[in-house]
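BACKBONE GEOMETRY TOKENS:
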Amino acid sequence: MKLFNRLKRDDRGATAVETAFALPIFIIMLWAMIQFGLMFRAMAGIQHALGEGARLATIFPRPTDAAIKARISAKVYGIQPGVFTVPNPVEGTGYLDLSVNYVQPTSLLLLPGPTINVTRTKRVWIAS
């Protein structure tokens, strides 16, 4: 009984046990925040590229769709492992719809995370 009471009062090593439980969860949460930061940087790159494509599309005479797509592709930025795709501009009555797609598979170190799909579109009114 005396041994049990002594062990009950002895708290040496409790910090190590608590750290062993909490540290993996903290590391996974930190890695998830890094993954989301990469995604938000890619979204900023998409917005920048769409703005550059919109500036090019509004000049007169209107550039070709291939030139607009090439400008968007050249100006988009982000960090791997994501993949950017730039579809051809969609022409409407007096406007163009420019868009960029971004797909990023995520991982939570030991576990696979969700795949993030982001599509941004910008409508540009063209000069006639």
